[in-house]
Specification:
The protein contains 15 helices and 14 strands. It is an alpha/beta fold and about 350 residues long. Helix 3 packs parallel to helix 4 and helix 8 crosses helix 9. The chain has a four-stranded parallel beta sheet, with helices on both faces. The two termini are about 35 Å apart. The structure holds 1,3-dihydroxyacetonephosphate and iron/sulfur cluster. 1,3-dihydroxyacetonephosphate binds next to loops.
Length: about 350
């Protein structure tokens, strides 16, 4: 798959675990969490069994902003971050004294892959008068070049604030989120042109047809989706904001345009509502088009247990100290800004 000249190859699908294996692995993980004083921090897009284990062992299941906050504030000395690499890196930048493990360090993100530190640095050099705002879905090195880090849950508020100060902005890497924020705020933004390979795949004509079949359904859309999909939304927001919208909107049927891993927590939040997947090209696509992030799907109970048992280079997030210190500045700015906002 190719976005803005970057070709993405997807990881192979991992084999499903047997039920008995899962039971055994859950016991092993619970034992190792205690032994290591560790806690699981899982993203909403990971498999339901990982989310359930995080919940029942005192960890968290959250959006990328809350994952960062939780890891930073929790007393555990080891964090096991089930998600994609930038989430583990964010945890390590904020908590260098903690051991940060990931089920696999190979879990990437197309936005991170589509924004190399070298090319991004040159882009910033071309616009020296602009404030540099990067999405959390970036490498530590790209964050180190930024003035601010932001997640989708507070992007509109942050850009609105910077715009009110008269600042012109560089935005990277997600073009769809950048355009959405630009439309909401009217800010002067130069946008990097990457995209999320999952959200980029939602199909407008098919969604219009689906809306005709379910005329009373609400449409919830993550702002990493293309403009034509956002235009059909009843509510647009980060993963946690979409869960909140599913709960508070009066609609009984909800079409969801984001990774379907979110259905686990969304269905818990509104057990009586019908949740429907927004259409992608599915099996007919040349790439893998299924509203499930192939890198999030790499996380499973087996490699969580392996990470906790063995740690080491396959699992432990390490960041060069000078990069970490520079990346910490815009990340701390984000956390302070988020803390000053009314909690939603
Ligand atoms: P959230 O910050 O909304 O959890 O999004 C992270 C992400 O990777 C969405 O694709
Ligand atoms: Fe990145 Fe998209 Fe996967 Fe989120 S869903 S981690 S933005 S590739």
């Amino acid at each position: 798959m190719d976005i803005n000249g970057v070709i993405y190859s997807f990881p192979p699908k991992t084999a499903a675990l047997k039920v008995e294996e899962k039971v055994e692995l859950r016991h092993t993980i619970i034992r190792l969490l205690k032994a290591r004083n560790a806690v699981i921090i899982a993203h909403y897009y990971t498999d339901p069994e990982i989310q359930a284990l995080a919940e029942t062992t005192g960890g968290c299941v959250a959006d990328s902003l809350e994952m960062a906050r939780f890891g930073n504030q929790h007393h555990a000395t080891t964090l096991i971050v089930a998600g994609v690499r930038f989430m583990g890196e964010t945890a390590k930048i904020l908590s260098p004294e903690k051991v940060v493990l990931m089920p696999t360090l190979k879990a990437e993100c197309s936005l991170d892959l589509g924004c190399s530190p070298e090319a991004f640095s040159a882009f910033c050099d071309d616009h020296p008068d602009r404030t540099v705002v990067v999405y959390a879905n970036t490498s530590a090195a790209v964050k180190a070049r930024a003035d601010w880090v932001v997640t989708s849950s507070i992007a509109v508020e942050l850009i609105d604030y910077l715009d009110s100060l008269g600042e012109k902005i560089i935005w990277a890497p997600d073009r769809h989120l950048g355009r959405y924020v630009q439309k909401q705020t009217g800010a002067d933004m130069q946008c990097w042109q990457s995209a999320c390979i999952v959200h980029d795949e939602f199909k407008t004509q098919a969604l219009l047809r689906m809306k005709r079949v379910y005329p009373d359904a609400a449409v919830l859309v993550h702002p990493e989706s293309p403009q034509a999909i956002v235009d059909l939304a009843t509510a647009v927001g980060s993963t946690s904001q979409l869960i909140c919208a599913a709960q508070t909107l009066p609609h009984q049927q909800i079409i969801v345009a984001t990774d379907h891993g979110i259905f686990y927590k969304m269905q818990q939040a509104c057990p009586k509502k019908s949740l429907l997947k927004a259409p992608t090209a599915g099996a007919g696509a040349a790439c893998r088009s299924c509203a499930h992030c192939p890198w999030m799907a790499m996380n499973n109970l087996k490699i969580i247990a392996e990470g906790l048992e063995h740690g080491g280079a396959q699992h432990e997030v390490r960041i060069e100290e000078s990069v970490r210190q520079r990346a910490l500045i815009p990340l701390n700015r984000m956390l302070s800004f988020a803390a000053a906002l009314p909690r939603r």
